[in-house]
Amino acid sequence: MENRVVIVESPSKAKTINKYLGRGYEVIASYGHVRDLPSKDGSVDPDNDFAMIWELDGRGAKQVSAIAAAVKDADRVILATDPDREGEAISWHLLEALKARRVLKDKPVERVTFNAITKDQVAAAMAAPRQIDQALVDAYLARRALDYLVGFQLSPVLWRKLPGARSAGRVQSVALRLVCDREAEIERFRAREYWSLVATLATPRGETFSARLVGADGRKIGRLDIGTGAEAEAFRAALAAAEFAVVSVEAKPAKRHPFPPFTTSTLQQEASRKLGFAPAITMRIAQKLYEGVDIGGETTGLITYMRTDGVDIAPEARAQVRAFIGKAYEAPYLPQVPRAYSTKAKNAQEAHECIRPTDAFRVPKAVKSHLSADEFALYELIWKRTIASQMESARLERTTVEIRAAAGGRALDLRATGQVVTFDGFLALYTETADDEEDDENRRLPAMRAGEALERRGIEASQHFTEPPPRYSEASLIKRMEELGIGRPSTYAATLAVLRDREYVRIEKKRLVPEDKGRIVTAFLESFFQKYVEYDFTADLENDLDRISNAEVEWRAVLRDFWRDFKAAIESAKERRTAEVLEGLNAHLGPMIFPEKGDGSDPRACPKCGAGQLSLKLGKLGPFIGCSNYPECRFTRPLSVPNGEEGGDAQGASGTLVLGKDPATGEEVTLRDGRFGPYVQLGEGEKPRRATLPKGFTAKTVDLEKALALLSLPREIGRHPESGEPILAGIGRYGPYVQHGKTYANLPSADEVFTVGINRAVDLIATKEAGGGRRFGRAGAEAGRLLGDHPDGGAVTVRDGRFGPYLNWGKVNANLPKGTDKDSVALPEALAILAARIAVAGDGGKGRGKSGSRSGSSKSADGKPAGGKAKSARPAGAGKTAAKAGKDTAGKDAAGKDTVSKKAPRARSAPKRPS
Prior knowledge:
The chain is α+β, with helices and mostly antiparallel strands. Strand 26 and strand 27 (689-692) form a beta hairpin. Helix 8 packs across helix 9 (279-291) and helix 8 (264-275) runs antiparallel to helix 13 (474-484). It starts with a strand and ends in a 15-residue tail after the last strand.
């Protein structure tokens, strides 16, 4: 029997597919990408025709070694990574790495893709292998080179010219501009007063309804045309004395068609609106549904591949959906002709199907017991959308009644509208409400006929004010990016995550708000790199990448065209002095940071000294506004000033910002940047009172009230009911706590330090004294949330540690990647992170729990350092000594391979107080 090695991306997929294929196949996982561009200058060489240097990282090298060992004894190699551009690239990287190991020889290498992880789909894919699509690989190479060149050329310019800026990316910068442009729209907006007049009328049969004033004396009245209360009162008085009669009644039939099945972006949008899921969470859950869940002892994929911008359904799947509708609903709900859809988005690649259930007859309630609550909610959403997409349209009747009001020679026109659903069609299963869609209220008007008199029951004049455009939600930003053709569906979630991680935006009430840092970066790019943050330019570049993937243009030719102008822009920006950059930013941000005062005075005049000019300054704590007469005048204010506050004195140039004065002492409260991060200080002198900003507090969000609260710690909550001694709440070296005598008990967040009451504090103290409560040492680590059993035995849990959430399996601990929601992480993702942790440790999992397993860099399944930075994946409680040892002992040998010391100094035990 021929021995075949099948290479997939994830271990859970490998396990499932191995069951389907059976004997003669060995399925092994690559854990995503195995090679990447080194994070250093020169990895892409424009002077050498964009030659690219690829490097195996520690985890990648281990996986390639394992794959090479399996391939060495195989007769055939089958590359079965995901069916998208990234999956094609991973297969190409694997092939190149295996060629370098010289294990392929003359072995046949084939490429297959699974659009769904079901037995039939896997069998069909294996029966139709192909070769790697080089055009898709070329498009990937071009995209990676572009992103690398922008990042490694533009980011250093940002660091030099804008202290505090993190970095810039090709797509992320344009997405950030969208958020900042919307914020500028909101700031420029001026509310406009307008009035509406609504009459409550009754038919001769006593049925009441409402009608709105739409015209007067032969002219139309628009929504904003009545601008004052006096005008509204005049119309109200006229209507109050008028006689009303029906002029015409018009009823028109209308149809409402079902929505197409989900693509990646529409799934992210609808899951955000209906389920409250962030895009990254949606994709993580969808990945689990795609890779499969255990149903009746067999792992089965529930949905098709979730990274797609195609909206059509395979003919056999469409037939199955129609069969389900025919069985579950009456005949009128099934259209005579199957529905076909096409996407309207720019740059769409419709080679893939939509996101749909793998089996239309697998109704959500049948699998509910096998899914978590979030998995069930997302599967139900996908299932309903797919079934509804093939159902009959809803039929409506929209009625418009025109009414004339005669009053003292004046002719006033009113209109009443109503809508009823005469046949619900697809609405019987699924409805969607978009951000900009009107309410679907089902209003039925009473029967009326032309010439019929109406009785006045009431006249209401209502005042309104126009509202600014709303800030983007994650869903609406994704929708806008898709409309403009910016980025790809598979990158949207990662793009938004990068903007948050770089602290360029924050989320308030589910809306994206640009930070001052983000607005400064956007202003800099628009001032000196305008072409590269223009929406059309970015979309056109996406078109070029699509042309590469269609083999219409050579990928290096696209890079040459881009690099020629981009290099010139970089060199020009490098030569600009900081003063010139600041003036450019002052001019660009002028309407925002120096708004007109309304009295004709100079908006940039210093309100303190009067002689100086306000200007944008850059300090260690970020951008702020300062006086040109510094140091004689120390006036400063934040970049964004709420409620028209004027600001105060501050030593902005030295990284100090005055927040205000302490009402009790009259001393200044300042925000400063110290060796160990930002802190607040009361007054001056040899030993002024200070408080470091705890986790969850940022320099941007700290105001005078919060600073005074921090400086007041520790605070006395009350007296212990038994001992009579005080119970204190404070923030120590190891986080927030409550204290009674020598007993310390942790609080979950810094905010609770200011709100915790005596009853909860006594309960926490009692639990701690009884030996309970959370500890941060190894032995006392909390039990955590059970994710499931590891394939090799033993429970996998997610826990909270001193250094953030981490995964635990036996004696193996791995930090969760930065930005990962510990409450939504699932078992497949956890297994991938743990496997990467073991691979980096270099013991193959055999020596789990040895000190060497904590050396090196913890990396997630996508190769990125867990927690955002390269850290030791150590258990909570491992102190700085262990972290330092883990860093020092991981290095490279003479051959350039990652090496890990088998011994590392033992971690210090966690301090007892506060525990």
